[in-house]
Amino acid sequence: MNIQEKVPLRGPYWDGKVSEIKKKIQSIFPGGAWSPLYDTSHLPPERSDVVIVGGGVLGLSVAYWLKRLEKQRGAIRVLVVERDHTYARASTVLSVGGIRQQFSLPQNVQLSLFSAEFLRNINEYLAVVDDPPLDLQFNPSGYLLLASEEGAAIMEHNVKMQRQEGAKVCLMSPEQLQKKFPWINTEGVALASYGLENEGWFDPWCLLQGLRRKLQSMGVLFCQGEVTRFISSSSHMETGSGEQVTLKRIHEVHVKMDRSQEFQPVECAIVVNAAGAWSGQIAELAGVGNGPPGTMQGTRLPVEPRKRYVYLWHCPQGPGLEAPLVADPSGAYFRREGLGNNYLGGCSPTEEEEPDPGNLEVDYDFFQEKVWPRLARRVPAFETLKVRSAWAGYYDYNTFDQNGVVGPHPLVVNMYFATGFSGHGLQQAPAVGRAVAEMVLEGHFQTINLSPFLFSRFYFGEKAQEHCIL
Amino acid sequence: SLSLVTPVWNRGTSGIRGLSKAVDPEGSQRKGRTLLQFLTDRFYDVEAVREYLLRKQVLKVQKKNRSVTYIKERYGPYIAGAYFILKLGGSVKFRDREWMRADERGLSSLEFRKLQEVPLEAVDASGCAINYQGLDNLLALKELQSLSLRRCPHLDDWCLGRLYQLADSLQELSLAGCPRISERGLACLHHLQNLRRLDISDLPAVSNPGLTQILVEEMLPHCEVLGADWAQGLKVGPEEQSQDAAGSPIPA
Fold this sequence. Notes:
The complex is a heterodimer.
Chain A: H1 12-28, E1 47-53, H2 57-69, E2 78-82, E3 98-99, H3 106-120, H4 122-125, E4 143-147, H5 149-165, E5 169-172, H6 174-180, E6 191-195, E7 200-201, H7 204-218, E8 221-238, E9 244-257, E10 263-273, H8 279-285, E11 303-314, E12 325-327, E13 332-337, E14 342-347, H9 364-378, E15 386-398, E16 405-408, E17 415-419, H10 425-442, H11 457-460
Parallel strand pairs in A: 1-2, 1-10, 2-8, 4-12, 10-17
Antiparallel strand pairs in A: 3-7, 4-6, 5-6, 8-9, 9-10, 11-14, 11-15, 12-13, 13-14, 16-17
Helix pairs in contact in A: 2-7, 2-10, 3-10
Chain B: H1 11-18, H2 25-29, H3 35-42, H4 44-64, H5 69-75, H6 77-88, E1 91-94, E2 99-101, H7 109-114, E3 120-124, H8 135-139, E4 146-148, H9 157-160, E5 172-174, H10 183-186, E6 197-199, H11 209-219, E7 224-226, H12 238-246
Parallel strand pairs in B: 3-4, 4-5, 5-6, 6-7
Antiparallel strand pairs in B: 1-2, 1-3
Helix pairs in contact in B: 3-4, 5-6
């Protein structure tokens, strides 16, 4: 028989125990780690290796490539946190859905080329046993970019670079243009570049659903909630030259449930910011930009939401089935939609005309005053068009150089960015997802070198300017 | 009926897994869901084996469509294209020669060496498993006049976007019966201005065959387009009906 020593009711042993018991009781309440009293199956898991903030096409693409490139099956636990499962305001589904290789930076051309190959073989990449194959509704009609006198030299230079990267683009003079597309008015056009292969438009909703379906079969966890807080720890270090640097590491992500105060702290190793138009807010939550201006600590993520309108109109005498997506030098663009002579189009406003991004209301006066005159000048048949409907969506606009931000933050060491693509995010999403997954798993870019797109360029002032923005 | 207890590691995900059926809700409620699908939902091993078999099928088609670069370098593009088509099971016709098809004994290399400089004029790849990669071998044939791609199961809209490279010489094209071609792919045939005969009948993925035919005819004014008869869906109007009854019958 064991003789137990009598333990006194006070003293260090019991004090320690009491505080443990108090902590345990506190953890039963909402926000705590242990919850035996009520059902938590609707909450995200308590621990996850990677938390992806944002469930749009970029976030899902990062999740797909993380699971595809992991060394062992089931090695990485990925959680995708999306605030709105109806995707009512997400840029992905409100997009016009175009894909082109006609960019001014070689990295953008490479990204688009790989994404075109991904979309072409989408039923091999995203195949799920027993589910029907995906039909992306791709129109291989190409993009036709028109340039005036000032832009002609730049366009020639760009096309040469695009051809070197492997894009199939041809240059056309105004006479050739008039012969090929008789419905264009070539007044003011000095040169045109026409994408012949791997360019066109597709259905972004189908891509999104395909990715979701494949991710669910690969075991990625989805959660509908909003990220409200990051719990991080800082460590003060000294660089080789003696400067003081504060490195931050995010330990927990607080995910708040929809329409409730309930939240779940998710312990994570890596956070991927793919929140699109709201990436700036997420970055601020993580402490990016909290510091004196002019230092790396004080450099904010310059991504903000910009509202863009897309109008749908009907024009019975409009361009025929062969019409590509035509982009005027003034910034107006349009493309065919379906067989019934309906067209989609819009125009990027100048800085002064920028609409307020607070809501997604459509301004039809903008069409009357800015878009229609430019379109009617370029395609005379559009004088007699009738607007059917319109919608508005957000660009995750990078105010610095209109190109994406990819890769880790230099100070918040475990936050990776995949955002800021200013209107060409959808078409580059598969390639960007692979690049971020390579960065996370290997530590460097392996297939496409996206070092011009790292965050540090905002501090050093190295612009990777994209000129061909629609 | 059998009811398996879902294993512990599945518990957290079974609710989310159920969402994957949201894409095809009727499928999951279909009576007679096979035992194989049932097992695939519950056992990772079965799922892995089925994924592997699916992947093997895809790889088989890709293997068939590999580029025959070594033949192209040795014998030239015409022989390479002919070899590729004959291997897939189609037939080819060189200029001033008869149609050739691969027989059971395989391809004899003797007659090929004689035909090195003779351009390939017509290719019949009906029913062959040609895809986007395989078209590489055909697009090098700059004197190709007639191309028949009937009932090719892997030919889709992306592939049609590549046919502009044959615009100078192609006069006859047939796409009848291809399950994956839709009106979106037909839109990029406008590059083929020398085309004189186009067959787009019996394309199941085209949503509106009559309207598509009208639009394609407008797009290619010099070409004779064989497709769905655009009048087939129209009903005879009342005036025409009475005329038919009143007028003398015209012998057919």
